């Protein structure tokens, strides 16, 4: 009888040698005359254990990792195909605390199924949401999403249902669904994992969105740096189309929805929804002034729903299990779960899906295990390169949109980059300004010129050139960028700069300069 062995095809695992491990296992089994079946699953999100190999046993899947091709013969000798003891063994995968203590809703299938197997997807609640949506009116679908409390997972946290309702009520012969998969924030990888490790859930979510607002065409805008995601999406779209889940007559309903992948050239600004639309239309990625809102005049001037990958990938479980089920997770106005991503100087980097409400400290210590260096955590940047640097005294802040906004921070896409006490926060502030200067689309003066001047001012502060006056000038410049920029690129760059100035004034000179 064939034994099933799981070796991830996620690009993080591949980068760490998963393909070579799969080949080594296959050859060793052949050499020993053992019949095995290798499934290339997604990653469980425990990146410090990658490549993590799992073996199906009567008790459940047993995990081994990180596995190197040189370890394979020893694993066979130890009887790993039967779940045998070995130095790399971690017991039953589901019992590993990092995974066991999560609340996986959007990521329920990730790491469990073969990402490109439609039968696997269907066997794990796949397309249950679409099946229900087909029997509902478009108004009822929109209301379900509204009632769930689902908010945009791309950064702005705008209620998804309100955006959908606006597009649904707009009158137009053609409407579009656009997925913003231009995941460019440092320390983020949840979008990539969905696209590579469970692409059908994104396809299903976009199809439900199409039915909800009357859109017949969808586009997934993926950054060129994600070749594995692009390949997985294209294959999954072809499979869905061949099996009646996309196309002119979805599941015999008479409803139409078509889907295509479009590749972006890697401009950070194209993560901003209007710049993304410009790029999708074949133009230079430059921010549009609003109004009009994309919901009314978006792609090619037509009403358009633009949502992030995680927002759309969460819709199927909302429809499958109902709004009340999803809304029951979380705190306050932050409903449901978010896949938090731990990166930087952290011992256990990876993905943790939890309901809103746990503290930043719980996430970094209970899941992340503290810093990889073993030194104390000094700062954590939450929400990408435009997110605030949060000091030790803010680590007990609950992960909740409103709680973060109240202290001048943002949850954003859930990415977190950890720094130990050796970090120079003046240099980190400079990095934020320089990042903005490089990635600005250049359309508005506060962002285009302000970020360039910002780098110059921070350089003067670092070199102690009339430091008090330069700190005052930097704060004034940040105020102009915050209130005068056309989009969030310039408007959010002051967050990391001011947080570094406010919480780590000693890195800019002396504590007295905090109020300068």
UniProtKB/TrEMBL annotation:
Residues 426-471 form the NADH-ubiquinone oxidoreductase 51kDa subunit iron-sulphur binding domain. Pfam families: Complex1_51K, NADH_4Fe-4S. Keywords: 4Fe-4S, Iron, Iron-sulfur, Metal-binding. It comes from the Bacteria. The keyword Transferase does not apply. Its cofactor is FMN. Signal peptide: none annotated. Belongs to the complex I 51 kDa subunit family. This is NADH-quinone oxidoreductase subunit NuoF. It comes from Herbaspirillum rhizosphaerae.
